[in-house]
């Protein structure tokens, strides 16, 4: 006898990257930001701690939504906050998808979409990308009947960014295109929600996270930007107090300090160029990333050995494996850390061979 729902009984569950609890690791496996958050975040949290933790947080996140709305040049009713953008993805699934309906995503990409679809009892379709990470010719037709098409842009684990025209052509006929812009701030030409203002904007949702570019993975904060008609439905689904008083204060302060975020993302972009160049020098193929990580493969296919060898040296990168129609694709995803960390991993890769 199983006490579980059959769907839960059968599913494997999502496996997040390793988070070693002891120090001494060079941690380049979960795309955290190597630089600290803005000092204004710490001030805001400190102030909040001295305030009123005995009362519930603002369920409407009024102040946060005002600041986020300014950033995207929309009204505050276009913004919905979440306990990490992963929670926003859950809210989207529960708002727009019924049991048995179709959810799609490119493949390889972020594997959480499939887990969320499984929990909801939806059908999940992987749209397999071309070897150069472009969309297959059939993508538009495959995506058409989806209730949600999730697209990380730039993509993970590859780091490439697709064109606006590509994305607009993929909007499902009776569904929503969710642009997961977790890495939007790391692009050479950052996103600013432009597609939301096109005439297809009423079927688009952009999601953002404070975990990567704002160095706040430990705070758990993300948000959605979408037309108020879509946001109002999502608001019915979300828990009233899904964001707590401290995370709201931290996220609001972080968004207000754009200079801090811009400075850090600029440093990461510079380190990224160096990492890509040096990986190629070492004989790897590395994607021209628009994110804070680099996907690389080697023609000798010894990715797992290198991952293990790095781990022995207390350097954690992400070893990833994807089953494709024509076999398996695997490779290493390396987070762009500080210059020192990246030099360390490059030296180790050289030594390992
Ligand atoms: C990191 C990441 C997220 C999750 O962000 P959180 O706000 O930390 O939940 C969502 N989507 C993609 C593609 C990511 O890489």
TrEMBL record:
| Keyword Transferase found | yes
List residues modified as N6-(pyridoxal phosphate)lysine. Answer: 212
> Which GO biological process entries does UniProt record here?
L-histidine biosynthetic process
Q: Does the keyword Transferase apply?
A: yes
Q: Which SUPFAM superfamilies does the UniProt entry name for this protein? A: PLP-dependent transferases
**Could you say which EC number(s) this protein's record lists?**
2.6.1.9
What's one Pfam family the UniProt record gives for this protein?
A: Aminotran_1_2
Limits of the Aminotransferase class I/classII large domain? 25-349
Q: Hey, which pathway is this one from? A: Amino-acid biosynthesis; L-histidine biosynthesis; L-histidine from 5-phospho-alpha-D-ribose 1-diphosphate: step 7/9
Q: Which domain of life is it from?
A: Bacteria
- Please give the catalytic activity noted in the UniProt record: L-histidinol phosphate + 2-oxoglutarate = 3-(imidazol-4-yl)-2-oxopropyl phosphate + L-glutamate
- What would you give as a GO molecular function for this chain, any one? pyridoxal phosphate binding
Broadest EC class assigned to this enzyme: transferase
Q: Which UniProt keywords apply?
A: Amino-acid biosynthesis, Aminotransferase, Histidine biosynthesis, Pyridoxal phosphate, Transferase
Instruction: Give the cofactors, semicolon-separated.
Output: pyridoxal 5'-phosphate
**NCBIfam families hit by this protein:** hisC (TIGR01141)
UniProt record similarity statement: Belongs to the class-II pyridoxal-phosphate-dependent aminotransferase family. Histidinol-phosphate aminotransferase subfamily.
Q: Which PANTHER family match?
A: HISTIDINOL-PHOSPHATE AMINOTRANSFERASE (PTHR42885:SF2), HISTIDINOL-PHOSPHATE AMINOTRANSFERASE-RELATED (PTHR42885)
Indicate the quaternary assembly.
Homodimer.
What is the name of this protein?
Histidinol-phosphate aminotransferase
């Amino acid at each position: 006898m199983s006490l579980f729902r059959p769907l839960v009984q059968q599913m494997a569950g999502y496996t997040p990257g390793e988070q070693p609890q002891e120090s001494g690791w060079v941690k380049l496996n979960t795309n955290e930001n190597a630089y600290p958050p803005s000092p204004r975040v710490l001030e805001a949290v400190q102030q909040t701690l001295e305030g009123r933790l005995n009362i519930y947080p603002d369920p409407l996140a009024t102040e946060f939504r005002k600041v986020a709305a300014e950033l995207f040049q929309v009204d505050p009713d276009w913004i919905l906050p979440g306990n990490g953008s992963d929670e926003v993805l859950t809210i989207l699934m529960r708002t727009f998808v019924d049991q048995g309906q179709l959810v799609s995503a490119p493949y390889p990409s972020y594997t959480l979409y499939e887990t969320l679809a499984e929990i909801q009892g939806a059908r999940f379709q992987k749209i397999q990308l071309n070897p150069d990470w472009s969309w297959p010719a059939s993508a538009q037709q495959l995506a058409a009947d989806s209730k949600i098409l999730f697209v990380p842009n730039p993509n993970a684990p590859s780091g490439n960014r697709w064109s606006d025209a590509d994305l607009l052509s993929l909007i499902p006929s009776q569904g929503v295109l969710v642009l997961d812009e977790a890495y939007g701030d790391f692009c050479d030409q950052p996103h600013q929600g432009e597609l939301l203002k096109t005439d297809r904007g009423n079927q688009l949702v952009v999601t953002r996270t404070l975990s990567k570019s704002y160095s706040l993975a430990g705070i758990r904060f993300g948000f959605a930007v979408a037309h108020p008609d879509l946001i109002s439905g999502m608001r019915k689904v979300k828990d009233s107090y899904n964001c707590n008083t401290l995370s709201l204060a931290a996220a609001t302060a972080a968004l207000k300090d754009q200079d801090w975020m811009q400075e850090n993302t600029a440093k990461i972009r510079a380190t990224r160029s160096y990492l890509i160049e040096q990986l190629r020098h070492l004989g790897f193929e590395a994607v021209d990333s628009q994110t804070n990580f680099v996907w690389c493969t080697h023609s000798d296919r010894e990715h797992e050995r290198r991952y293990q060898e790095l781990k022995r040296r207390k350097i954690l990168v992400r070893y990833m494996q994807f089953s494709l129609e024509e076999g398996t694709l695997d490779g290493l995803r390396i987070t762009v850390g500080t210059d020192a960390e990246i030099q360390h991993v490059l030296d180790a890769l050289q030594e390992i061979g």
